[in-house]
Amino acid sequence: MSRLMFYIIVGLLMVVGIATSVQRHVQFEIPWLPGEQRQVWEIEAGITFNAQNGPVQVDLALPSHQAGYRVLTENTASSGYGLAYQADELGRTARWTIREAVGSQTLYYSVQMLVSQDARSPIQTPPEVPVATPWESPYDTAASQLIEQAWARSANNATFARELILDINGERQSENARLLLTQENPAALVVRLLNQAGVLAREVSGLLLEDGRRRQTLSSWIQVFDESGEEWSIFHPLTGEQGKPDNLLLWETGGRAVLEVQGGTNSRVTFSMMTHDQPASAAVRNHYSEDTLLNFSIHSLPLEEQALFQTILLIPIGALMVVFLRVLVGIKTSGTFMPVLIALAFIQTTLPTGLIGFLLIVAVGLIIRNYLSYLNLLLVARVSAVIITVIAIISIFTVLAYRMGLSAGLTITFFPMIILAWTIERMSILWEEEGPKQVLIQGGGSLITAVLAYLAMNNPWVRHITFNFLGVQLILMALILLLGNYTGYRLLELRRFKPITDDEKPS
Amino acid sequence: MSWLTNWTWPTRLRDKGIIGMNRRNIRYIGRYNSRRLYPLVDDKLKTKLLAQQYGITTPELIGTVTTQFGVKHIGEMLTGHAGFVIKPAKGSGGKGILVIEKVEDNAFIKPSGAKLSLTDVERHVSNILSGLYSLGGSPDVAVIETLINFDESLMDYTYEGVPDIRVIVFKGYPVMAMMRLSTAASDGKANLHQGAVGVGLNIATGAALRAVQFDRPCYSHPDTGHDLASLVVPQWETLLNLAAGCYEMTGLGYLGTDMVLDRKYGPMLLELNARPGLAIQMTNGEGLRRRLDLIERQPDGVPPKQRVAFAQHHFARQSELVDSKPVESSDTTSTGA
Hints:
The complex is a heterodimer of chains A (507) and B (337).
Chain A: H1 3-28, E1 37-62, E2 69-77, E3 82-88, E4 91-115, H2 139-152, H3 157-169, H4 175-181, H5 186-196, E5 201-208, E6 219-225, E7 232-235, E8 248-252, E9 259-262, E10 264-279, H6 280-285, H7 303-312, H8 315-329, H9 338-349, H10 351-374, H11 379-403, H12 417-434, H13 436-457, H14 460-468, H15 471-483, H16 493-496, H17 498-502
Antiparallel strand pairs in A: 1-4, 1-9, 1-10, 2-4, 3-4, 5-6, 5-8, 6-7
Chain B: H1 10-16, H2 21-32, H3 38-42, H4 44-53, E1 61-65, H5 74-78, E2 84-88, E3 98-100, E4 102-104, E5 107-109, E6 115-116, H6 118-129, E7 142-146, E8 164-170, E9 173-181, E10 197-201, E11 208-213, E12 216-217, H7 236-250, E13 254-262, E14 266-273, H8 279-284, H9 289-296, H10 304-314, H11 330-336
Antiparallel strand pairs in B: 1-7, 2-3, 2-7, 4-5, 5-6, 8-9, 8-13, 9-10, 10-11, 11-12, 13-14
Helix pairs in contact in B: 7-10, 10-11
């Protein structure tokens, strides 16, 4: 294969790996560091009504992704009711249905919203200007006067809306306004007058988020579109303040009713909420998002499989460590990837217990293997005997540790027994052929590699990155391919070949 | 800072033309040694049969034992042979090699003087067959060959073991050579890392260039005390031609050939290695890089004799063991080729 092809493949792996990682970082806001905390709001809507002994249908408007907030998860509690989520261009709704219900009913809907600065609201379709219901006299003149005054003092839709709100509710409240307020509530009046002047506007419902508040209700806000019908802004219906407060969660933005109950009376919905910070990675895990091929992620798996993958995805890190230490440093290990498996065991046992356990098992195993060599067994039988020996050693140590009250000793069972048996076998042959010094060199090398691999794999940042960014695997692949192409000196060769460079000087 | 003095800079190694493990693996073994040819050198019996085909001298084959049933007939096979060696075909690192110097009254006597009975020999062969000494424990074949009577001229340079000569053959050109002398420290084995003395040899003449033990220069054999400067391998050109011929025989481009000198038959091929080590650079005090680069620029299809002459001409060097004593002109040897 030509070199060019090789570098193209490596480059491609690199680019794809980095691109998918950056894409995940940008699109799903998965931070590069594990420690970051994200604020999450837990909001619960409680719907109560009296059922009238017949079929009931309850429609509740649901919040969507919007500026400043992102929907993580949502749940409902409603025993006996059928439930369907629906979505159209005006927003999402949940519909509960039941054939027969009697007496006081309570339905719950809870949602987790992630506070995120970069979240964008979906494109909103502006409402059509409703057919104006004509005012009766004398309200018609009052309305047109209000509109004329505000129009004269404004430059565009937004300023017109502000002026109108101030005229109706502010200090400048006029006779005309007071007259009209007898017919409509403030928010509805403003929207009606705006529509009458040909400005696209509607009433939306929002929830002001405050930690630990219970039995809250939605408040009305006025959404005013600009002349083009694309940009909009939110106005407080009483103060005329423009802009959405940071703690305002828009619940319903379609101009429809928040709650509709058919077959029930006295219906109301109240909200309770609380906030808490959680690690960004956990917040990400709860991410509510459509699974397309692009956001291919481990997080779509059940929790149990996710935990398994967390370990599997770390193995390439250990492999990279081994390649690095063997190719660049030149450390000798017994069994190429045995150190990675030992490092995986260390993750379960913690380092000190793991080290002590490993040394104990190998030392005792070597002594017993030494005796087995006198029996002149065939290799497969001998290794099988060593495996049984290793299991016996592990059992004895576990029981002893438990009797002595060392619960840490129980984790010794996490060691891969077959691998340990082979390690003992190899060390033993090495001892016979090359002497104890080589056993120390290779055993020590394996142990150093295992410890370094453990430190790399157990690093919280590494765990976070490998688990959340699958693209990193491609980058690791590219790095390993590059290392496999390295023809330079190993670090330890600088020492090995030192004598050659020496004797140049005297002569 | 004292520990720093044990280290050198990569640039200095590169100036010396030293080749590291990674470069050897990728650039030479990976490029010139086709994987499918490995079995030819990893199985000593195959190597031996191939060598016979190509007319390369090897220790004479007495016979092979391939089945446990055949073990019973080993006594008949051995009658009439004074000294012999039993080795596993796929053994590594000299494991499982049994040397019998002579047979007296049905007792087999090892070089150390220990006596073995026929049953002991049979058990050893049986162990070889069951894979006790082979890589991975796979079933093996026992190879029995005549004992080498190594050349007296080299007797003083070694302690207990047989000195062997390693020649690195690259694309059929002998590029570097060394002799390995066993010592008491190496326990009669010719393994450099166990303490054998490595002597770099002048490719032109077969004379000693430089000697190291444990990677440090030495000037005389640590056990026999014999001066190493006087060491010259006899029948050097025959030996080089033998080594160079191994390229045609195996097709391996980067090859380590291990040879011995027999009193009667001269240079003999003992075994081949498809992954020869880098210690030869230490014994020669020179990197392989420049020589390999030069060979890579040579055209293919040059006959062995010309390749040997080329190497003798270009790789001639002066000994570091003798003070400013000129090496015999390399021209005489090359014209002789």
